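User: Hi! I'm working on a homework problem where we have to compare a predicted structure to a textbook description. Could you give me the structure for the chain below?
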Amino acid sequence: MLSAFAWSQAQELPEYINYATAWNSTTNTSTPLAQEEGESKTKVGAQVLLPTAPLAKHKLVMKFSGLKSVSRIKAEDTLKIFVKIDKETNPEGLFKIYKAKVKSSIREVLYGTINVNSGTNRLDGDFSYTIKKISPGVFRLSVVGPKSGDELFLFLSSHDSNEKFLAKLSLGID
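Assistant: Happy to help. Predicted structure tokens:
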């Protein structure tokens, strides 16, 4: 069995900041996640009038063209994603992994909600993961749950209050 250091050295780690590479240990292949630009939309939700105030909930969605990501990897029990960020950035809460719903010829990701009374709420993602620091600025996300046919988006979000994304990366599971 390879040591953790030798194993991580055998991977094709992301070369650029705010990029990621997926690793399949069964086939010993790495796949860079595709950088994609999506169109952010606000879907107006139902409004309910309460005696105290109107309550409206809107969905924040990101729409991406195409039924599938160009980056593909074979499914396995635990998906390993290696992410490179600036060495000075705190990784806590930075990574969000969402599952896209495929509609017509687009992939749609629900990443937050807006409530008139409580403001914007960014969702934590559809997949939980464990995180391990591999080297300064390089982290391994071990994601449990993706299965064949899933279209995933890894959002690297900023820590500021402007709700900005540093990167939007996609990966399809075959």
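For your comparison, note the following. Residues 94 and 157 are 5 Å apart (CA to CA). The first strand starts at residue 19 and ends at 24. Good luck with the assignment!
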